[in-house]
Amino acid sequence: MESAPNTHLVSLAAGDLLMVLLTVPFTSIVYTVSSYPFGEAVCRASEFAKDLSLGITVFTLTALSADRYMAIVRPVTHHVSDSTGHVAIAVAIGIWVVAALLATPAAIFSNTPELVNPKGEKFHICTPYPEYLGAVYKQVHALVKAIMYYLLPLALIASFYVLMARHLFISAQFLPGEAAGQQRQAQARRKVAKMVLAFVTIFAICFLPLNVFNLWWHFAPNSRETYDIYWHTFRIVGFCLSFINSCINPIALYCVSGTFRKYYNKHVFCWCTRHSGRRDWEGAESTGTRITTAVRTEQIPLKMVGTDNGTQQPPAHRLTLTNTTVLTTKPHHNPASLV
Questions:
Q1: Which of 135, 164, 188, 304 sees the fewest Cβ atoms within 10 Å?
Q2: Is residue 131 part of a domain?
Q3: Residue among 169, 163, 203, 204 nearest 186 (CA)
Q4: 117-149 pLDDT, tens per residue?
Q5: Both 75 and 168 in a single domain?
Q6: What span, in angstroms and rounded, lies between the C-alpha atoms of 240 and 39?
Q7: How many folded domains does the chain comprise?
Q8: Banded model confidence at residue 329, pLDDT cuts 50, 70, 90
Q9: Are the CB atoms for 238 and 209 separated by under 8 Å?
Q10: pTM, whole model, 2 decimals?
Q11: Cα–Cα distance between 196 and 9 in angstroms, integer?
Q12: Residues 70 and 215 grouped into a single domain
């Protein structure tokens, strides 16, 4: 758990849990009732949690891609550094702070205005766009969210993976005779890279419809007039996919990571599996400096010099044997132990 990918995965899981608990119940009920039944405080908290979770998700995926780039392109520097774990924790905390700052406008400006439908019936909605800020704020807000939460992160992630693919291709050409240990390490790093790529692909698919709808709704000059059942269905599908993203990440991780799958079966489905207690190398934890000292004392009869062929029984002499072994001098993370 001290590895950088695992630190980011814990942060990603916390953001997903925040989305599922604080946003999905209050947003989904909008499509089942005619008027928003909660007050303005719940509306602000729900919109803030939605933007916070979205920021945590996309920024964590970007950080995971950057970490995989460093692990594959510069494995020695990335592996030997003693501060890798501390840097990952600092980055995770920074992601939460930045995501909270970017979600602050949703907490400040979200409100529940009263509207009137064509039948003359009054109802309330929860919206992050106050009327007194005008249409320009809606357009700027939608455009900034599309750039900061979707287009820019995906461009950075794509750049990291293009550079990783180029490095792996060149390495496969010029290093055909890698040692077995190096091949296993490279294979483990590639597995983690594939895991991150799966997360990114799922994110890109899940949030594409919602971003397309928001940009169309706020920038198309006749969007209000052309809004029909098809656009309404497209909007609902976009909301559902954005929420499904928070639920599908652990499923994707279970499918692409053998280590995660093994420990998930062990701790969650423990009644279905029986383990012999053997600890294999794949799930080995990090090992710090450890010094083993073995002391053994034995009584060995020694032959006295000058006796008659050693027939006289000499007194037993104690001989103490001490063996000190330094097993390792640096913390070590087995690449295969990364989920």
A1: 135
A2: yes
A3: 169
A4: 878 888 888 889 988 888 899 899 999 999 999
A5: yes
A6: 23
A7: 2
A8: very low
A9: yes
A10: 0.69
A11: 10
A12: yes
